Amino acid sequence: MRCALLAALALALALLLPAPTALAVARPAYGGELRLLLPAVPRAVEPGRAVEPADVLLMRALHATPLELDADGRLVPGLLEEVPAPQVGGRAFRLRLRPGLRFSDGTPLGAQDVAASLARLLRRDVPGAWVALPILGADALLDGRAAALAGVQVLSDRELLVTLAFPLPEWPWALAAPAAAVTSPRGAGAGPFRLVSLDAGGARLAQNPEHHRGRPFADALWLGAADARAAARALERGEVDGVLRPEAASPDAVAGPALTATVVAQNPGRLGAAAEPVRRALLALDRAELARRFVRGPSAPLETVVPPGLLPAPPLPAPAPTAAAAPAQAALLVLATAPDGRAVADRLQVQLSDRGVRLAVQAEPPERYAARLAAGDYDLALVAGPPVALQPSLAAGAVALAVRGPAAARQAMAGLAGLDAGAAQPRAAGLSAALQVVPLHASGLRATAAPALQGWSPRADGTVDPGDLWRLGGGR
Amino acid sequence: MRLRTQLAILFALFAVIPLAAALAPVTRALSLALDHEHAARLDGAAHAVEGELARLAEEAAAHVAELARSPDAEGFARDLEAGLVGPAEAAERAGEWMPARGLDLLAVTSPEGQVISAGHLPGRAGDVDPELRDLLRAVPAGRATPRVLSRAGTAGLQRVLALVAWQPVPGEPPLRVAGGLALDEEQARRLAALTGAAVVIRGPQGETLAEASAPAAAGQPLVARLGARLGMGLGGGARRELALGPAGAPAGTVEVMVASAGLARTAGTVLLAFLGALLVGGLAAAAVGAVVASRFTRPVEALREAAAQVAGGDLGARVGARASGEVGELVRAFNAMTEDLALGRSRLAQAERVAAWREVARRLAHEIKNPLTPIAMSVETLRDAQAAGRKDFPEIFDEGTRAIGEEVRRLKRIVDEFSRFARLPAPERTPVAPDELVGSVRALFPAAPEGVALTADVAPELPPVLADRDQVLQVLLNLVRNALDAMAGAGGRLTLGARRAGGEVIFSVADTGPGIPPEDLARVFEPYFTTKEGGTGLGLAIAQRIAEEHGGRLEARSEPGRGATFELALPVAGEPAQSRPA
């Protein structure tokens, strides 16, 4: 009788509830496979080399970072037990791992793995090396003069002390960047998923029960690629659960923050007498129009090397008009696989041509592009910065590393370390001239989700954590 | 140049000149015919290009019209109206449609020419493109027209002449689709391949925008190049210009130049045949000329060679070549002349030998005759004194026999000198010190004759000379005696010297006597020439012969009234004899 009464009460409550979604928001459902579409099929690269959005998302699925960002953009513990507090004036940090951490292959994750992961970043041409560059002894390890990072001291299985080469109180924010992910010596990660297969059609992942937050909501994850219209059609037909691309796949798309800085790096040695007229022509560009018309994702004009989302800055003053200069000629190196880069290059070609500069566009595949950029084999190069941390100094360091190398990156980070916005603005403005770059725009991605997909919103750093995703009513 | 060569050349010229004279009118006539043919082909090619351009214009207009009415354009307009497509995404859309429809240029614009999407110039999105704006204003929809537009290229923006048309897109917002086909390098190559002509596409200011050579232009054979080079095949500079657009202000021009390789090849073949005939004819005529000329010139050349032999002293040269006519008479006269010359020379030599013997006989008779008279007189005197029984006969006998003895010795000396001149022994040369030779000469004259001062001037450290000491002493003594004779009575100074000159030692004997008259100076070394009473004229001749047999020389110089100097040059021992210095 009592049971019958309880059943009748439950039925009545169920009938009275207004909508199932309200209940779903409150009660995430487990199980099923989630299908996501990205601008390209992700590649299984090291965390430090993950630059493209698809690679970063795969990295987020496979790996875990010592610290993470919560929904409000605050720094919260990830693999660490707590957010480390600065010591010795912001030059030392004691990192303590959670107990019982394991990689997806079941091997334990210890302090030694954190130290090794940081050291692995310090190799040539690793875009994410800016995370470890402030650590004492980073330059020696990078140059091959040392076998280990002098500034990382493993105190126990779960604890290590990191000493920086210069005061940088905001360095813990770097530990939430994708490049700071901890990997095992065999490449296994500690993220919410583990890789099952990867081919030209996409990446298939299965849940990782060893994840420090427990098993993810979805049992499996599929990451594929499609262009904007195909992705929109697939979403409309219910073939996929979410799309992460620069363009909106539906009117309900959520724009992520524009944190990827794109700059034009100049090589005055190659440009010669053309360097000044080219620089003036670049500075005279309407960056707001460039960002609005030629960047497909959410974008903003860039006034310094730090995205305005991190450090608002007043518009750059237009250069004073001068007597008509002799026609100049230059070549712009651009990444062939970056559609926004090609579009911006096309615009620069037209705009600079209107200002008397004949601009050749040299689109190169990723490997050749990176090699020429590192060797300084260019007149002008369109450089998009890697994923950054939410601090101006760290963002400036990431851009400086991309265009001018480790020494410039350390100087950029040290120059902006610990400064408030008012003090950091002029420093950041001066940094453009020091790095011989012209800031163009900052850009981000848009996340478009099927109505049933939950947790599909870019975080404050523009990335999405696949471990947070779940579908109303559970898996299909 | 030899006569035979001249004749051969003359023959060759006779053969070549008529052929060469015929070359000019033949080539001119051929050139005219080929030019006519070339002009016809050029007109045909220009007509073909014109037709192809018209077809391209229709094709461009058709593609643009199809796109403007297509679901793609309609959907694009709808998405724009609904705000479903952002500016950056919209800017790329024309770039997707352009290659699919075979267009080289494509833009979607507002009615005012503001670019929304441009496949050929994506960076122009958002701007009003003045070139497209003018197109929309000036040209009716659906009609293709030539225009110069800017296009993105890897090396920067490039201007391209294109056949462009536009069409409105039905619906809202009001959109225009403008597109066309570029008359670029690829199109120029296609037109060239289609017509076999070279094609140059120029902009409104005449600037070259694209060009393609005629397919046959590459690897022209030698004959074609020869024909073209010689102005045949000509029409190499002929072209047709097709103005594109309004006649007053064309947007560009297409120049058509028909490849003239085939015609040039024909012309070249004709030319080569002519040149070959010239060459073969010339060579054959030269060969025939050489053969014929050789028959005529062989006796003449034999005469020339024989004359050269005669001039060289060979009077036995004869012309053996057979010839007839005047040349034969000339040959016979030459042979007779040389025979006469040889006979005359033989006779002359015989006469000279007889004269020489006569001279020797005369000299010997003269020399022997002089002593014979005193001998005969002394004998007569002795016979008369003995017959008369003169008391002083012993004295007379003594005086007479002494005179006879003196004359007999004189005769002996004369005979000795003649004998020495005829049979001078070969010198036995050994190294001899010059100062020792000079000392030996001086020792023979311990006291100089009255009024004569004898001095020696010998350079120090002279090397030994290679000489037969006795013969050289004989020479020096002869020279000293002559000098003393020259100064006899008047007195003077006699200087005996020795010095080095290169590889020789010069012995000199200088006097201050009356000197030698110039007319005698040239003859002093001749045999039998003497100015001294009782002299044989053989002393200096013998001295010069000794000097020459020593590899040296004997020279004389004199000025009348200022004495004479004789110099004997002998080679230094151990050094080769040097030629006489100039």
Oligomer: heterodimer
**In this structure, how is the largest beta sheet of chain A organized?**
7 strands, mixed
Largest sheet of chain B: 5 strands, antiparallel
Give the count of helical stretches of chain B. Answer: 13
Strand order of the largest sheet of chain B: 2-1-5-4-3
Alpha carbon gap, first and last residue of chain B: 38 Å
Largest interface: A-B, 28 and 20 residues
What global shape of chain B is seen?
Answer: elongated
- Portion in beta strands of chain A: 15-25%
What is the overall pLDDT average of chain B? Answer: 83
Structural account:
Chain A is of the alpha+beta class and 476 residues long. Chain A has 14 helices and 20 strands. In chain A, helix 12 runs antiparallel to helix 13 (406-416), helix 12 (392-404) packs parallel to helix 14 (421-435) and helix 13 packs antiparallel against helix 14 (421-435). The longest helix of chain A has 16 residues, at 339-354. Chain B is an alpha+beta fold and 582 residues long. Chain B has helices at 3-68, 71-82, 87-100, 130-138, 185-195, 222-229, 261-311, 325-388, 393-422, 434-443, 469-486, 518-521, 539-549; strands spanning 105-109, 115-118, 145-153, 156-169, 175-182, 197-202, 208-212, 240-244, 252-258, 430-432, 452-458, 465-467, 492-501, 504-510, 553-558, 564-571. A 5-stranded antiparallel sheet of chain B has the order 2-1-5-4-3, with helices on both faces. In chain B, helix 8 runs antiparallel to helix 9 (393-422). Chain B is elongated and about 190 Å long.
